[in-house]
C-alpha cells in the first residue's frame, strides 16, 4: 500500500504546440494540503484534467499506488473527488438534496435511495461549512459564493481520500475565504484527506501547514508552505519575466 496519495514521474502534458507540464515529479504524501499556484494559463487546471482522466499525458501517474492509466474514470470510481472552477446546474434543486448526492457512490445499487443517516450527514456537512440556513433553498438561486460552500459540503460526503479543488474560494468574501482554508486544514488533519487546492489567494497561505506547488516556476516542485516560500512565489509571479508566454511555448 502506497503512503503517497499522488506520485508523478516525468509527467508531460499540454495542448497542440504548447507543453504546460514539463517533466513534473511530485510525491504528495497522504493527508497533506497542497496549494497549487501559478499565473493564469500556467497549467494548474491542466494538471487536474490529467488527474481526472480527461487528458492524455506521457510519464507516470499513480493515485494511491494505482497507475492512473488503469483507472478508467477516477472520480466515478472514488479514486478522487473533483470540484471544478465552474460547476453549473441548470435545473432547480434543493440544497440539501444536492449535498446528499455526495453519498451517491456508497448508495449505488440501493433501490431505497438515501437514508436518514445520509441526510444527517448532509446536515452536518452544511453546518460545517456554515450553510445550514441554505438547506431548503433552491440551489440555482444562490449567489456564486453560497453555491461554492454547498459544493464543499457535498465533497465532505464523498468517500474519496484525494480532493482536487479548483479555486474553491474564488467567489467568497474575506470571512468565508478564511473559513474555507481553515476547514480544509481541519479535513486534512481529522479526516486524513489529501487536498490539492488551486488558488490565487496567496494571503491565506503562509500560516497553513502543507506544501506549495508553483506551476509557474521553471522546475515546479513541492516546497513547505511558510512565509518565505509564499513570499518567493509571490515575487516570482509578480515578475513580468516569469509570465507563461515568456517560457512555455514549444
Ligand atoms: N483545449 C485546449 N486547447 C488548446 N489550449 C488550451 C485548451 N484548454 C486550455 N488551453 C490553454 O492552456 C493554457 C493553460 O490552461 P489552464 O486552464 O491549465 O490554466 P490555469 O493555470 O488553470 O489558469 P487559470 O489560473 O487562468 O485558471 C491556457 O493558456 C489555455 O488557453
Compact overview of the structure:
With 250 residues, this protein is an alpha/beta fold.
Care to describe what's here?
The protein is globular and about 55 Å long. 31% of the residues lie in helices and 23% in strands. The strands form 2 sheets. Strands 6-7-8-3-9-10 form a 6-stranded mixed sheet, sandwiched between helices. Strands 2-1-4-5 form a 4-stranded antiparallel sheet, with helices on one face. It folds into 2 domains: 144 residues, 3-Layer(aba) Sandwich (Rossmann fold), CATH 3.40.50; 75 residues, no CATH class. The chain is built from 8 helices and 10 strands. α4 crosses α5. β1 and β2 form a beta hairpin. The protein is α/β, with parallel strands linked by helices and 250 residues long. Bound molecules: adenosine-5'-triphosphate (ATP). Adenosine-5'-triphosphate binds next to α1.
Write the layout of secondary structure elements.
Blueprint: E1 4-15, E2 18-29, E3 33-37, H1 44-51, E4 58-63, E5 66-67, E6 81-83, H2 95-100, H3 104-107, H4 116-128, H5 144-156, E7 162-166, H6 174-191, E8 194-198, E9 211-214, E10 222-224, H7 227-238, H8 244-247
Parallel strand pairs: 3-8, 3-9, 6-7, 7-8
Antiparallel strand pairs: 1-2, 1-4, 4-5, 9-10
Helix pairs in contact: 4-5
Bound molecules: adenosine-5'-triphosphate (ATP).
The site of adenosine-5'-triphosphate has 10 residues, from helix 1.
